[in-house]
From TrEMBL:
The lineage of its organism: Bacteria, Pseudomonadati, Pseudomonadota, Alphaproteobacteria, Rhodobacterales. This is Aspartate/tyrosine/aromatic aminotransferase. GO terms for biological process: L-phenylalanine biosynthetic process from chorismate via phenylpyruvate. It holds the Pfam family Aminotran_1_2. Its cofactor is pyridoxal 5'-phosphate. Residues 27-389 form the Aminotransferase class I/classII large domain.
Length: 394
C-alpha cells in the first residue's frame, strides 16, 4: 500500500524554512515564514502568555475533555475581540480549531457540505495554503485580481471587474487585514464598495483574519471585518491567535459562521461541532485557555495589548527604515510602498530569479513570489537587505 504513494509537492514557505536552516553562512537572513522575531532574532513568549500559563499550571484542576467546539468562554472572548458588537451574538456559531489553518479548513469543508457548486474566489496572490487546501478538497476555485505589481498597491478596478463575474452563492475569500503575502490592503471606502457588490450579487464573504494588531492597531485591524459582518446576511470567519498572541505551535484558532437569522444558529453550531468531531474530535485547549485567561483579565489584557503594540510599532519602524534606506541607495521613490504596506509582509513584486539571486549571492531568504517578512529584519540587517536589493537590480 505505502509503496503506491506519490511524492507530494513541497509547501514553498516550509521548504524555504528547511533551506535556511541548512545554509551554513553566518550572515544569512531569514525573511521567509511568517513568524515574528524581535531585534535579537528571537520569537519571544509574550509576557501575558507566560503569566497566564503560570496561572494555569497552578489553578487548572483537570485535563478532561471540554466540548467539541472548545470552551464557550474562548469563543465569547474572541468574538468580542474581533467583532465587538458588530453582530448580535445569537447569530454566531463558533468553534475552536487547531490554528487559523484549522479554521480555514473547517470553513472550506462547511462550504463544500452545504453548497458543492459554490466556487471560492481567492485574491491573486493569496496565502498558498488557501489554494492548496481548496484543491485538496476538490472545491472549485478561481482568482480575482488583487495586487498591482506596478504600483504595489491593490488593483481595485481589476478586483471589482473579476468579482462581478462571480455567481450567486459563490464565496469570496478576503483577508481581514494585513494581506498575506502582499501587505497591500483595501481602505474602508473600498471595503464598502466590495460589500455592496457582495450584496448585489448574492456572494458570501469568508474572512481570514490572522494578523489583528499587526497593521494599524487592534481596533483598526478589525474595522473591515466588523463593517462586513454588520452589512451582509451571512459570513464565515477564520481567525488565528498564532501571531498576535505568539502561540504559533499551540495551534489556536476560531471558526465563526454567522447566519442571517438567529433561529439558524443552533443547526449551524451543530455542523461546526460535527466537523470538528469528524476531523480531530476536540480542538487543542492549552492555547485557547491561555488566550481566554488573558482576554478576561484586565491587567493581563492590558499588558498583552501593550506588548503587541510594541511589536506592531517595531515592524512599522523597520518598514520606514527600509523604505528610506532604499530611497537613499536607489535615488528613487519606487520602494515607498514598503512604508505604506501593513502587517508582517510586503511583496516586492520582483521575479523568482531575482529572489533566488538574493538567496544565492547574499544569503537572504524570501518566498519565491518575493514576499518578505518584515519582522525577520532588524536595524542592522535593513541596510544589508537594501544594498542587496539595489545591487541585484530589483
Ligand atoms: C506564513 O504565511 O508564513 C504563515 O502563515 C505560516 C504558514 O503556516 O504558512
Amino acid at each position: 500500500m505505502l509503496s503506491n504513494l506519490k511524492a507530494q509537492p513541497a509547501d514553498k514557505i516550509l521548504a524555504l524554512m528547511a533551506m535556511y536552516r541548512e545554509d551554513p553562512r553566518p550572515t544569512k537572513i531569514d525573511l521567509g515564514v511568517g513568524v515574528y522575531k524581535n531585534a535579537q532574532g528571537v520569537t519571544p513568549v509574550m509576557r501575558a502568555v507566560k503569566a497566564a500559563e503560570r496561572r494555569l499550571v497552578e489553578e487548572q484542576t483537570s485535563k478532561a475533555y471540554v466540548g467539541l467546539a472548545g470552551d464557550p468562554a474562548y469563543s465569547d472572548a474572541m468574538i468580542s475581540l474581533i467583532l465587538s458588537d458588530a453582530v448580535s451574538r445569537d447569530r454566531i456559531a463558533a468553534a475552536a480549531t487547531p490554528g487559523g489553518t484549522g479554521a480555514v479548513r473547517q470553513a472550506f469543508e462547511l462550504i463544500r457540505n452545504t453548497n458543492p457548486n459554490a466556487k471560492v474566489w481567492v485574491s491573486n496572490p493569496t496565502w498558498p495554503n488557501h489554494v492548496s487546501i481548496l484543491n485538496y478538497l476538490n472545491i472549485q476555485n478561481t482568482t480575482y485580481r488583487y495586487f498591482d505589481s506596478e504600483t504595489r498597491g491593490v488593483d481595485f478596478d481589476g478586483m471589482l471587474e473579476d468579482l462581478s463575474e462571480a455567481s450567486a452563492g459563490d464565496v469570496v475569500l478576503l483577508h481581514g487585514c494585513c494581506h498575506n503575502p502582499t501587505g497591500a490592503n483595501l481602505n474602508l471606502t473600498q471595503w464598502q464598495t466590495v460589500i455592496d457588490l457582495l450584496n448585489e450579487k448574492g456572494l458570501i464573504p469568508m474572512i481570514d483574519i490572522a494578523y489583528q494588531g499587526f497593521g494599524d492597531g487592534l481596533e483598526e485591524d478589525a474595522a473591515a471585518t466588523r463593517l462586513v459582518t454588520s452589512s451582509v446576511p451571512e459570513c464565515l470567519i477564520a481567525a488565528s491567535c498564532s501571531k498576535n498572541f505568539g502561540v504559533y505551535r499551540e495551534r489556536t484558532g476560531l471558526f465563526m459562521a454567522i447566519s442571517e437569522k438567529a433561529d439558524n444558529t443552533a443547526v449551524t453550531q451543530g455542523n461546526l461541532n460535527h466537523l470538528n468531531r469528524q476531523n480531530f474530535s476536540f480542538p487543542p485547549d492549552h492555547g485557547a485557555r491561555v488566550v481566554t485567561t488573558i482576554l478576561t483579565d484586565d491587567a493581563l489584557r492590558a499588558d498583552w495589548a501593550s506588548e503587541l503594540e510594541d511589536t506592531r510599532l517595531s515592524m512599522l519602524g523597520l518598514r520606514e527604515q527600509l523604505a528610506s534606506e532604499l530611497q537613499r541607495l536607489s535615488g528613487s521613490d519606487r520602494f515607498g510602498f514598503l512604508a505604506q504596506h501593513r502587517g508582517m509582509f510586503s511583496q516586492l513584486g520582483t521575479t523568482p530569479d531575482l529572489v533566488e539571486k538574493l538567496r544565492a549571492d547574499y544569503g537572504i531568504y524570501m518566498v519565491s513570489d518575493s514576499r518578505l517578512n518584515i519582522a525577520g529584519l532588524n536595524a542592522t540587517t535593513v541596510p544589508i537587505l537594501a544594498n542587496a536589493i539595489v545591487e541585484s537590480g530589483i
